[in-house]
Structure formats: C-alpha cells, structure tokens
Amino acid sequence: MSTNSRIGNSKPAFKTVLPWKLKSVSQTRQDIQSWRRALAMFQSVEQPTNWVLQQLYNNIRVDALLTSQIENRKDQTFSSDFVIKTKDDKEDEEATKVLSNSPAFRKIIDAIIDSRFYGYSMVELQMIKEELQILELPRTNIIPQTGIFYDDYIEQTKKIEYRELREYGTFILEFNNLVMHEQDFGLLNKIVPHVLMKRFAQSCWSELCEIYGIPPRYMKTMTNDPGMMSRAENMMRDMGAAAWFIIDKEEELEFAQGVSTNGDVYKQFINLCNNEISLLISGAVYGQDTVNGNRSKDEAAQEILWQKVLADQRFIEQEVNTKVLPALARHGLVKEGSMMNYSEAEDINKLFDFATKLMVHKDVPNDWIEEKFGVPVLDKKTEDVLKSDPNKAVLWAQAQKLSAALPSNFFD
Question: What distance in Å separates the CA atoms of residue 8 and residue 129, rounded to the nearest whole number?
C-alpha cells in the first residue's frame, strides 16, 4: 500500500487545541481487498488505525449518485425551521434568529449529520472577534475507539488523549455514532462495496466500447521485409485511432467469439448498485428509475425519505441539546438550559382546504391567516359578503328595494 508524503502543517484561521499535519492523499485504485484491509486495521484491538477507512470513505464520495442522495437528505434538514427555547419552555427569538443565520451553527449540524455516514465527527469552537468560528477536525487523525488524536496519522508518534483535555466539551465537541460490537462503522461502510463494484462495471463497459465500438484493423504483408513493414506501420498509423496489427501473409488471426452483448449486462449491474445505494441513503428507489417509475411510487418514496429526515432531525436535537447548546452557553451565546426543537412541517394545501371549510362556520383571525399563508387580509363588508354569495344575491336585492321604499322615520 502506498503511503502519503508529508507536505507541511495545516494553517487554520485560528490556533487550534488539536493541531495536525496536512498530508497528501494517495489516489491509487481501490478494490474490495482494499476495503477489507481497511476494516481489519479499523477493528484492531491493540492499535486501531482509522485513516485508511476514512480515506476510502472520502474516495467513494465522488460518486455522482451517492453525492446527490446525501445532499438531498441533508438539504431537507437544512431547509427546515427550528426554534431555540429557554428552560421555561419559551421561545428565545433572538437566539433562534442568530443561530438560524449562523454559518458556524450550520457547520455543526452538518458535522452531526456526517457522523451518521462516517461514524464520527469532531469540531473545534473558537470565538474570533466575538464571532463563533468552527473548524472540523480531520477524521483520519481521530481514534474514537480509544479517545486518541494524532497530529500525524501515519507516524503516530505524538498522541493526545483529547477526552482528558479541559477544553473537551467546551471547545472540542465530539459526535460519536460508532457501535463497535455491532460492527456499525457508519452508513458509508455499507455503501463502499456497491460503489467499488459499480466503478468496475463502468470500467468494463468502457473497455467494451473501446474494443467493439471501433473494430480493430489488420494488414497482411511480408513481415520479413523491413521496408514493407515500415510502410505498413505508417499506413495503419495514419488511418485513425482504432487498434491495428500487422501479420504475415502466411499467418491467420481470429478473434475469440464471446457472448454477443451491447453492454446490457453492465448496465443492469450498475443499476443494481445504484438501487442499493438509494435504498441505504433514502430508503427507497426513486427519481432515476424512469422505466418502472410512476408518480405514486415516487410519492411513496418521498414519504419514506421524509421519515429518514425526521429521524435525522431527532438525532440532531439530541446532540445539540446535550452537547452543543451547553457549550454555547459557556461562551455566552445562548442562555443556560436552552433547548433546540425543529418545527413540525405543515402541508399548506391541506391546511388551506381545512381553513376554507372552517371559515363557513367559524371566525378565523386575520393574523393567523397572514402567519400561515403569508397573505395580508382584511374583513369584507357585509354587503360584499352578500353579493359574493349567489344564494344570497336575491335577498340582498330585495332588502335594498324594501329599504328604499320605506320612509326614513318608519321605525321611529
């Protein structure tokens, strides 16, 4: 296995409690054997090593489908509203507004979500000019199994027991989602074999296109004549980019007849890997399946994905309420005992239909309508209400005619 060469020290925007050395990353081809070797190093009881597996996770993240699935799941959480409440269960509007618009708080939530995919995350908090700054620590240097942080994950000469530091829990926040006895090393660990086999199938399909897309050419000549051989080589080289070969007039060459295919076997295998990735991230296959897809199926898949997003939000609430907000309270950014809650998503169309039917029998406050639907409203005048109802239009006309026929002092 090739190792990474040292190229210098990392230079974050502020002085870190846990400094590390920046390393170049090897871009060698990964296969199933690489994954098994990384798992063996990760599960070592005497001296676990995590950087090989974490670099493999980073390597498979370049897959287009995997990236879109993860970003889709994250975006639904980032687009959801949340509120910060004080310990007496009242909304802290100022803290809610500040954290909702804080890039640093978004990075913390992103690290919490990533801990479900990578197995763990760790961030460092700093206050720079009264502004919260977040630095995500490299997972390659962290060994959560033993609570060790290495400044150099290859040499491993200098180690820090980060959970024993006084900054732990205030400046250093750890989100550990590993379950070693159940071999749960992050969701990406289950996806690794599917991405690697998908790459293999794509490579084979590309080779098929290269061989059968442009058929090779051959030429017969007198191979023992240097002049004729040189002329034949120049001729074949100038005729294009297809594969070519030269044989003697007395020689014969035949291609082995393989299974006749246009790549369907590779396409089906790639689709199988894509479906497995979608099932692991979103809980269902939707969107990319245009052959067997339909609206009802995709709507059901979206509902399953939303359930996973709700589970992510509950997990985020637990981590934020037990680790993040207590740390921010020590920095004076929120009040002691503050709690975070995601707002329940409402179906606006169903709510509008319900409100429309309710207004026939009950009075609905204008401020509630403005808050829910964002439409400024005013109460209609009595005559406008009567005119707008076809069933009451005749009664309105008769009332107007009767009032005009009676003298002004009729009821005096």
Answer: 28
By C-alpha distance, which of 185, 139, 143 is closest to 36?
Answer: 185
Task: Give me the phi and psi of 175, to 5 degrees please.
Answer: -120, 100
Query: What is each CA distance from 129 to 126, 133, 348, 383, in whole angstroms?
Result: 10, 10, 42, 61
* pLDDT of 9 higher than 50: no
| Mean pLDDT, range 173-194, rounded to an integer | 91
Kindly tell me if the per-residue pLDDT of 135 is higher than 50. yes
Average pLDDT over residues 21-44: 89
Q: At 389, is the secondary structure helix, strand, or coil? A: coil
DSSP 164: G
- pLDDT digits 0-9 by tens, 299-335: 788 888 888 999 999 999 999 999 999 999 998 889 9
Tokens 């509902």 identify what position? 303
Structure tokens at 397: 């006309």
Strands, sheet with 131-136, edge to edge from the N-terminal-most edge strand: 131-136, 120-128, 172-176
User: Which sequence spans correspond to the domains of the chain?
Assistant: 6-189, 191-292, 348-405
- Picking from 30, 8, 28, 27, the residue whose alpha carbon sits closest to that of residue 19 is 8
Helix %, strand %, coil % of the chain (to 5): 50, 15, 35
Instruction: Give the pTM.
Output: 0.75
Angle of helix 64-78 relative to helix 264-282, nearest 10 degrees, comes to 20
- Report the Cα 47 to chain-centroid distance in Å: 31
C-alpha to C-alpha distance for 283 and 285, rounded to whole angstroms: 7
